[in-house]
Design a protein that fits this description.
Layout lengths: L3 E5 L4 H12 L5 E4 L7 H7 L8 E4 L2 E4 L1 H9 L3 H5 L4
Parallel strand pairs: 1-2
Antiparallel strand pairs: 1-3, 3-4
Length: 87
């Protein structure tokens, strides 16, 4: 199974959608909540090539982007192979 990381906040609707999409696929992920620990923001921005919005999603260390980017991968049939056979 792939290592999935998501930087998010609790109230962001795109974060909710990203979690829902991953949960629907049975994928487990590590979530880093910027509203709970704002000190994580510089790390997220550095990893996401300066992007400041949430969510920012990483699969096996690869920056996927935000929810719209992940949803586009899913529509193109490219997300499931990234998630691995157990997702």
């Amino acid at each position: 199974m792939a290592k999935i990381e998501i930087y998010s906040t609790g109230s962001c609707p795109y974060c909710v959608r990203a979690r829902r999409l991953l949960d629907g696929k049975g994928a487990s992920y590590d979530e880093y909540r910027l509203d709970i620990d704002p000190s994580l923001r510089p790390t997220m921005e550095a990893r996401a090539n300066g992007r400041t919005t949430v969510p920012q999603i990483f699969i096996d260390g690869r920056h996927i982007g935000g929810y719209d980017d992940m949803a586009a991968l899913d529509r193109a049939g490219e997300l499931d192979p990234l998630l691995g056979p157990d997702a």
